[in-house]
Every structure is written in C-alpha cells, then in structure tokens.
Amino acid sequence: MSMTSQEFPRGTVTFLFTDLENSTRLWEDYPQVMKIALARHDALLQETVEAMHGKIIKSTGDGLHAVFPKAGDGLKAVLAAQLGLRAESWGETGPLRVRMALHSGEADLRDGDYYGTVVNRAARIMATASGEQILISASTADLTRDHLPAGVTLLDLGEHYLRGLQRPEKLYQVLHPDLPAEFPPLKTLGTVPNNLPAEITSFIGREKELENVKGLLSPDESINRLVTLTGPGGTGKTRLALEAAGYMLQDYPYGVWLVELAPVTDPQHVVRAVASPMGIRDQGARPLELMVLDHLRSQQALLILDNCEHLIEECARLAETLLRDCPQLHILASSREALGIAGERSFRVQSLSSPLETESISVEELDQYESVRLFVERAVAVEPSFTLSRDNARDISQICRRLDGIPLAIELAAARVRVLSPGEIANRMDDRFRLLTGGSRTALPRQRTLQALIDWSYDLLPEEESTLLCRLSVFTSGWTLEAAESVCGFDPLEPYEVLDLLEQLVNKSLVVAESTELGVRYSMLESIRQYAQEKLAEGGEGERVRENHLSYYLVQSQDAFKALMNLQPPDDWGARFKPEADNFRAAWARSLEVGVRPALEFASSFSTAWSQVMPLVEIHRFQVKALELAEANLDFTDSEAPEENQLLLARALASAATVAFGARMLQKVLKYAKLSTTIAEQIGDMETWTSTRSIWILATSLTGGKESLQKWLDEEFEQVMRYGRDYHQAMSLAYWGSVQFFVTGQHTREAQVRWEQGMAMLRHSGNLWIQASALQFAADLSKFLGETGKARRLAEQVMDIYTDLGDKYAANPARSLLAELAWEEGDFEQAANLFRETILVWRDTGRADAGVRTIESLAFTIHAQVEGKTDESHQAHLVYAATLLGAADAIRHNINRPLSFLDKPKYERELAALREAAGEEEFQSAWRKGQVMDLDQTVLLVLEGLNSPEDAF
Questions:
Q1: Residues 6+ apart with CB under 8 A from 57
Q2: Kind of pairing between the strands at 256-260 and 226-230
Q3: pTM for this structure?
C-alpha cells in the first residue's frame, strides 16, 4: 500500500519486521501452493497491523516492515498475527513459521520510508529469531512492561551483539500461553562462529540485490554452492557480501568466515589466508590445504573469498577443491571477473540507482535514488548541518550521475563537502582523479582514491587488453563490435583480434556488454573511460584513434544520407543510430578541429529524418559552426575555389536549410536556401538547386509570403519532376499540393490530386517520419489560415504516428500546436497539460527559444483557468503565473530572443490582464522571483506546480 509521509507517525515509534522461515525451500518444493499461501500470509499480517493502528511501510521479500505510533499496539499486533498464523490450515506447505521483532526509537522519515540506526537495529533483531518466535528490544520492553496483555510475560534473553552493530542489545522473548516457548539459541554473533567486522556506516539501498544474494546462498539451494559477485571496483561487492552473510548467520551454524585476499600478493599464500580466520595453523606435519579440507568437510559453513581478481587462477583451483570435498560448504566470492569453474553462479553487482540526465524532479523524488541517499548520508557524517535541498539537488544529482552511481566514488565526493559546495564538486567532475582523494586512512590503499581504485584493475591487464581499453575510450556512450574493429583494429592489434580482447574486458568488468534488439552494444563506466583516455594520451595514440573515430562516423552519416534520399530507407537505421548520438557529436566536434572539408562533409549529410536520432536544432547548431568555419576560410570559399568545394558548400547549405525547416526556424531556412541555390545555379548542380528551392518555397508559404507563389510552384514542380529523386518528388507533391490548396487559394482539383498523390507515395514508402513531416506541414498551414478543425485532425495524426514510433522530440511541434488549439477553444486544462509536456521536450532538446514561448503560454493558461473565480487558490495561481512570466522574460533576454511581431499583441494583452488580476504589488514580487531563474529552474518550477501552484513554493 502507498501512503504519503504525512500519514506515517513521527517521534518515538515502534518498528516491526517479519520474515518467513525456510521460504526458499518452500518456494522450490511448492511453487504454485506458495503463491496462494503467501497471499493469505500477506493479507493476514496486513489486516492485523492495520487493526492495531499500524502502517505497512513495505514488503521485504517474504516478510514486511511496519510502524506503530505506540509500542503496545505493536505488541498486540504481533501476538494476534502469530495466533492467526497458527490457526490457519496451510495444506501442503505445512505451518508457515514467521519470525517477528519489535524495536522502538526515533528515525528519519523521508518520502514514506524510515531511515537510520533504529530501523537497522530492528531488522537485525528479527534476523536472530527462529520461526514463530517474537523478540522485542529493551526499549520496546520498557514501553510495554506495565501494560502487557493478560497471560503475556517477557523472558529476559540477555545482551547480544548483532551483525554490523557496535553496541549490544538486550533482548526479550514474548511468551504467550498459546504460542511455543522453546526455541534454539538466538543466531547472534555470540552464538555463530564468525569473523565478520562491525560496520560503522549504514547500508544504503540494494534491497533487491540483498534478497537475491540471500536466496542464492541459502543452504537449501544446493546447486548454488558458489556465488561470485562481479563488477567494477568500488561498486560495493564486499559490502553487499558482508551484509548478506550477516543476515544468514543462522543458516551456517558452523561458521561464516571472511577471507580478505586484497593484501595477499603471492598465490601460494591463498590457502594460508583461508585457514587463518578459522584458527588453523601450519604445523608442518601435514599440508595446510588438507587441514582446511578436514576442518570444513562435514560442516555447514560459509566462506567469503573477497577480492579474488589478482589471484583468480589459484582462487578458482582452491574453490573447486573445497566444493568437491566439502558437500555442505558454500562460498561467496567477490571479484572483477567470475572464477570460471563448474557450478558457479555469477551475480553482477550494479551501480546504485541515479537520476537520469534529463530528469527535473523534486527534492522528495530525488531522495528515492540510492546514490543520492548515500551521498547525503555520508556528507552529513562529515558536515552535520548538510541537507539535501532545492538549491543543491541539481548539483548532487549531477555528481551521482557522472560518478555512475559507484558507491566508493560517491563517498569520496561526499567527503569533500567539508571544503566544497555540491556545485563546486560538480564543476570539478572533469578532474575527478585529483578531486576524489582522501579516503579513510584505515582503508586499503586502492580504496583511498578513485585513481588508485582503477589502477588496481588496469595493472592486472595483459598489454593487448590494456591497449584496446585505452583505444575504446574514444567512444562516447557505447559502441558496436563493428565500430570497435574499424576504429581500434590497427597495429599492434588486428581487427579480427578485437572480439576476443573485448570479451576479456567484459569478463573483467571493465567493459559492459548489453544485448539489444539490434545486437550487443558495449560501454564503459564514465570514470573508467576518463581513466583510459588519460592512458591513451600518455601512450601517444590519441590522434590516430580520434582520426579513425571521425572517419568511421562520417562514412556512417554519409551512407545514411544516401539511403534516406530513397523513399524506402533501411527500417532500422534510426534505431541503430540513436544509441550512437554521442559518438556523432564527438565526431562533429573533431571535424571542426580538423578542417573545413570534413566539417562540411558532415554538415551536408543530414535530413529532417535525423529527428529519429537527436533534436534537429542540435544538428543545425553544428551545421552553423561548419558553415562559419567555411566562411572564415577564404581559401575554401573564394570564388576561385575548385568546383568540388563549391558543390560541397552548396550541399551543406541545402542540408542546413532542410534541417532548419524541420525545426521550423524559417528565417534560417530562407537565408541558407538563398545561398545554396545561388551557388548551385553557378556550378550547374540542378539536383541541389531544385531541392533547396523547394525548401525556400515552403518556408515562404509559412511566413506569409504569397507574392508570385503560384508561379514559383508551377516552375519548381517541373524542375523537381525532371531532376529530383523519388524522395524529392514525393515530398514536392505532398508539400506543394498543400501549399496550393491551403495558401495560394488555388483550391483546385489539380492541387488536391498533387497532395493525395504525394501522401500516397509517402504512405507506400513505409517511411513514417516523412509522412508525419508532411502532415505536420499541412497542420501548420491549416492553423495559419484559421482552419482549426482541420489543423487538429492533422496534428492528431502526427501525434499518433510519432507515439507509435516513440519519437517524443519530433512530435513536439504537433503537441505544441494541439496545446495552442486547446487554449483557443477554451479547454484550459487540456492546454495546460500539453504545454507542460511540451516544455519538457523543448528543455531536453535545447530549444530555449521555443521553450520560453511555451512557458508564457502556460502562464496565460493558468490565469485563464482561474479567471472569474474567488476561491482560496485563486491568488496562488496568479502568483504562480506571474513568476513563470518573470522567468520567461529573463530567459528571453539571456538568449536575445525578443517577442515576434505576431506574438506581441496577444502577449501584452494577456500580461495586462494578469497584472490587474494579481494586483501590482503581488505581481511585481512574483515577477522578481522569476527573474533570477534559468530555463532548467523554470522547468522545475513547472513540475513542482503540477498538482497545485502552492506546491511550487
């Protein structure tokens, strides 16, 4: 059940933890019956907890976590629950034996969950109990002792040390005449032989991973006697292993032994490291390994082999021997790579969850991410006054994301809050290896700095693998095998060797392999990539690798352009290219450094269909830079320049005009189309002249220029049908038919036929992006002419197509058009919802120019929603709208984008109405508040006011 934080009790509360004993075996033996049994178990516990005024916080595997405002209610609940469980007839599974524990104290309440040592202690107490046993702590006993239910007594079990807690806890067993009283000894550190260290920091998140590891390690799981936790350094493999082992002490009565292998450098000393925690000493009379086998042969014990990667062969040999000769032994190993022996179950430890780059979320929502919670908790440890706030949320989010959610790196970053703000730490992420130092003096040397952590893994690599790792760092956001072979396969590596070496890097957790519908894609964690980049620079191969990277992605882009100029391009080209967006960005940047020709070659290879890959406005920004570079290079652009250069320039200008048209940057279309047609005409390139002239006409039609438009249409149509490709012909029929039909007033049968022929060709091609582009153009024209019904129908068709394609960026002009139509028709709620969706996409695509207009429209819509109303929220809506307008005004000034002459009258009219409704003083105060916001902060304000404007402040 889901509740808000306000519904949960605060102050001194009592926590309940429960767990079903032997659940793994029950699920294995009775999978279908257990579904029914556990559902009844859950319902019974929930009914009992709620009947005693408790709140369910969450499920924990086959148990639950609940809270009670009064300890007495918690005690009544557990008694009723145990009696209820015993009264049930469970059928094939036999009685469900549930252990329960209560502990009272104060804990931090955030977003419907509790945090702190009190919660951890309650969970630890429950883990020491047996099925059907009820344990309570001393604090709960003190609160209930004088009000025990009739017949109930408390049995003093004495003080016990609990796994991970330094202070012992006095425990009591709750006795009831109708419940069992005799149980095995408590499963605490004092009763199970072990050498597990006491943890001095809390364990953050990883609930699912913890349950998975516990399930794999259960003694009932005889097929999983070796479980290896794999993953890059610093991801918390050791901590997860210790946490799981601590919870499972009761399952291994003969001992849980931690073997720390990091300090061991000689493989011959591995056996000694295993023997030492169990007190086995080398006496010379008998081989030490045989003594270890004799000790473990008949014992149900758990061996934790921590940090095996530098001794992988010896660890694999010894583990295989131990498992063969000790049938009740389980081994939990941690390593960068699996041991690679029969019967091993590999479990990859992922990084902590982190916010996505495009997310703008509230402080409360941000706190749900494990990496953020870890950063905040460790920061508080070094700076007690530190808090997660609206002011630092964005910076903390960036830190956690750029550190890939790696726990050790986040802890090192959090330690810096002693001397740096989160904003200063975030700004230094590009220099992370110098920033993230100063770990605990008692930690292993490789855990004191991020540099040392990755050094440890890198130094273990053979030369060929380290060479490939460094070369792969040129890729951004991943790569394919084909790309790796093309870019990295040069002396001393052959292309055919890349696959095997790549597989080794995956095995060693330095490269991540992910299966997709289009094949396997590889990537690195960003910290490893930055490290490898530094090594690449030191090795002197950086220029060669970047040159190969540029060449590969330029060819990819050019091949795609050729395919897209056909009506039926490859179906998967957009899906293949979308994950490569960052690699294209890197190649573009490199082309600008190399020179005019590669920059223009890239710039000339784009069409509007690239909206499948990334925002068109971003592509256009690169094209502008490439054209500016050509303009600054007189040798290239001089009229005496070779025809080949002029041809390349004309096509780059044509592509820039086309992309600008797709982004509806119409003045840019007119500028670049004019230049392109001039050059193309001079050199006789009729194909470029024709296609560019077509874009010019379309932009003219949308900007209201009708003079001689009909003459242009007739002339250009003949040219396109003579020189244009199939793609141009189909687009021309659809676009020009709609221009004739909607703009020039030539509502003739010929115009309609052209429109229908063009759309038929586009539909037949199967290219949905081109179809949607033509429909969007017609929708814009309809809106321009005041034919709102037709505009809505066409825009909805566009939205349907892009929704099916999953292209939210390309759909935004249609969404924006639908929002404006809803506003004009008085459907202000629908308009506000659409404007909110639209502004998120404009923000993500860097379209501050379009975004600011949407913010203004949203503000006016919010005013319209409450106009004429006098309820309490009326003024809050007006203040909220005025704040948004103040922010929009500041953004306009920052990007130097004043209101257009078309928008200005409406803006001034709506602004005056809002000012009068809000009152001058309130309006000015809200306006000034908005003036200090940038686009991201304004979007966050939009999100925080989603349900109610009061929530935004």
A1: 8, 64, 65, 66, 67, 112, 113, 114
A2: unpaired
A3: 0.63
Half-sphere exposure (Cβ direction) of 742: Cα atoms closer than 13 Å: 26
Residues whose CB falls within 8 Å of the CB of residue 705, separated by 6 or more in sequence, listed in order: none
When the pLDDT of each residue in the chain is averaged and rounded to a whole number, the result is 82
Above 50 in pLDDT, residue 491?
yes
In contact, 512 and 506? CB cutoff 8 Å: yes
How big is the CA angle at 467 (ends 237 and 583), to the nearest 5 degrees?
Answer: 80
Token match 């249609």: residue? Answer: 814
Answer yes or no: are the C-beta atoms of 630 and 660 closer than 8 Å.
Answer: no
- What is the pLDDT at residue 948? 60
User: Tell me, what's the pLDDT at 394?
Assistant: 86
Categorize the per-residue pLDDT at 737 as very low, low, confident or very high, splitting at 50, 70 and 90. Answer: low
Kind and range of the H or E run holding 163: none
d(CA 765, CA 116): 60
187: left (phi over 0), alpha (psi -120 to 50) or beta: beta
Token couple for 685? 């390139």
Provide the pLDDT for residue 545.
95
Half-sphere exposure of 179 (CA within 13 A, CB side): 26
Order the strands of the 330-335 sheet from edge to edge.
Answer: 256-260, 302-306, 330-335, 226-230, 344-348
What per-residue confidence (pLDDT) applies to 189?
Answer: 64
* Spatial separation of the C-alpha atoms in residues 217 and 28, rounded to whole Å: 14
372/398 Cα distance (integer angstroms): 10
d(Cα 869, Cα 45) in Å, to the nearest integer? 48
Please check whether residue 257 is in contact with residue 361, taking contact to mean a CB–CB distance below 8 angstroms.
no
Helix axes 450-458, 526-539, angle to 10 degrees: 70
Give the lowest-confidence range in 5-9, 277-281, 718-722. 718-722
CB 439 within 8 A of CB 412: yes
Q: Write the CA distances from 488 to 193, 466, 477, 515, 553, integer angstroms.
A: 52, 12, 16, 21, 13
List pLDDT tens digits, range 862-910: 888 887 666 666 788 888 888 999 988 888 888 777 776 667 788 888 8
Strands (E), 77-140: 98-106, 108-110, 113-115, 134-137
If you write DSSP's letter for every residue of 591-637 in order, what string do you get? HHHH-HHHHHHHHTT--GGGGGTS-HHHHHHHHHHHHHHHHH-HHHH
- In terms of Cβ atoms closer than 10 Å to its own Cβ (0-12, 13-18, 19+), residue 39 is exposed
Name residues whose C-beta falls within 8 Å of residue 385's C-beta, 6 or more positions apart in sequence.
Answer: none
Within 514-611, residue ranges assigned H as helices are: 526-539, 542-564, 573-577, 581-594, 596-603
- Binned at pLDDT 50, 70 and 90, residue 638 comes out as low
* Structure confidence by residue, pLDDT tens digits, 743-796: 555 555 555 566 666 666 666 666 676 677 777 777 876 776 677 888 899 889
> Residue 928 in 3-state DSSP?
helix
How far is residue 738 from each of residues 745, 751, 781, 860, measured CA to CA in Å? Answer: 10, 7, 8, 32
Cα distance between residue 81 and residue 168, in whole Å: 28
- pLDDT confidence of residue 740: 55
Provide the pairing of β-strand 108-110 with 113-115. antiparallel
Give the mean pLDDT of 412-417: 84
The residue type of 278 is: M
Angle, alpha carbons 537-538-540 (nearest 5°) = 65
